[in-house]
Amino acid sequence: MSQINLRRAATALAALAWLSAPANAANDQPLTENWAPSEWGADDKAGAVNRTTAAMVLKAAKLVKQGKVATLGKVYQQDAPGFGSRGWRMTIPGLPTGGPFGPQELVYNDEYLSTEIGQFGTQFDGPGHIGVITSKGMYFYNGRFLEDPDIGTYGLGPLGVEFVAKKGFVCRGVLLDATALRGGQLPIPVANSMDDPGVITDKDVKDMIRRQGIGEIGEGDCVFLYTGHGDIWHPSEWDTYDAAEKTKRIAKFNSGTPGFGLSACEYLASRKIILWGSDTWPSEAVGLGFGGENPQPFECHITMMTKRGIWNLENMDLSQLVADKAYEFLFAWSPLKIKGGTGSPGNPIAMY
Question: Are the beta carbons of 338 and 162 closer than 8 angstroms?
Fold first, then answer.
């Protein structure tokens, strides 16, 4: 077995052990550190997007200088990489689905879609996506518990993504090009360490801002990391690969990712950003044992979303922005108003 396959097997076994942790395990950090109520009050359901002001929007609009537009979503299709058992299964029943109608013989087509609609492809992680098991129950953003009576399998009630969608994101977008910092595509981390080249630290974020010659990250910003890992699922070449090549690339894409480490996420949170994202499926570093800077799997997800309501936009196509060196831009995006949903698909837009 190759070294790469051994690492993937070790990662898979570590993840299985983590997912199979004892049922009575509990993390009471959210309770002892008083993660709730949030700074926007006990009734808040939207999170950090509440920071947006009219002045911020008007300032961000001034970043449009060339009249260029980049769409940042990837194509939703059945053979796209999906984490774990997630998948995209679309059929057009009937061909045509209905008709004919009237003297002009009208026919129409509809699609039937089966997917994790908020958690496949370019995906927005909403308030109901990530939680923590505590001694009082499964804790989610702003002190809500999965066991609450208004939350169920047919919708997450106050944790639904529609409350964020009512606000939407219009902000200064900031692109952090980690390939320029590292001199090429970042590797999947092999150690839970700030020194691993696949982990982006707070120092790295500051260095990228300085090297790219843009203003510091500030309140209300939306910050996106380009690692090059997303190009394994190439935004424009995917359909040119044969089935064997796609299978190989999917395995590599999902085996782990470079990305933000916890120190970077804590720094971004201290700058009061409202959204973070990347060209990878988790946006944060996922390597040894599914951990990043530390052994805890998806620790940025916990500290950014569950604790602070700073949501995450994953699997973005940042290639045009990188090619144009468009490091700051007007960014616009809103998740779909899916009542009770955990997240949303979509196609964000950058204007510069």
Answer: yes
Tokens of 208: 């990228």
The label of the residue with tokens 């700058």 reads: 271
Return the structure tokens found at 105: 């013989």
Q: Considering Cα of 210, then 215, then 221, then 226, what sign does the dihedral take?
A: negative
Task: Residue 50: name the closest of 332, 274, 313, 217 by CA.
Answer: 274
Residue 284 three-state SS: strand
Helix (H) or strand (E) holding 156: none
3-state DSSP assignment of residue 113: strand
How many C-beta neighbours within 10 Å does residue 339 have?
A: 13
Residue 279 has pLDDT above 90, yes or no: yes
Q: Using one digit for the tens of pLDDT, what is the confidence trace for 117-157?
A: 889 999 999 999 999 999 999 999 999 999 999 999 999 99
Give the model's pLDDT for residue 180: 98
> Phi and psi dihedrals of 7, rounded to 5?
-65, -40
- Nearest 5 degrees, angle CA 175-CA 181-CA 185? 85
Please tell me the predicted confidence (pLDDT) of residue 25. 81
pLDDT at 14: 42
pTM of the model: 0.92
Measured CA to CA, the distance from residue 66 to residue 63 in angstroms comes to: 9
Nearest to 256 by CA among 192, 205, 311: 192
- List domains and CATH numbers for the chain: 39-87+106-130+158-351 (3.50.30.50)
* pLDDT confidence band for 22 (50 / 70 / 90): low
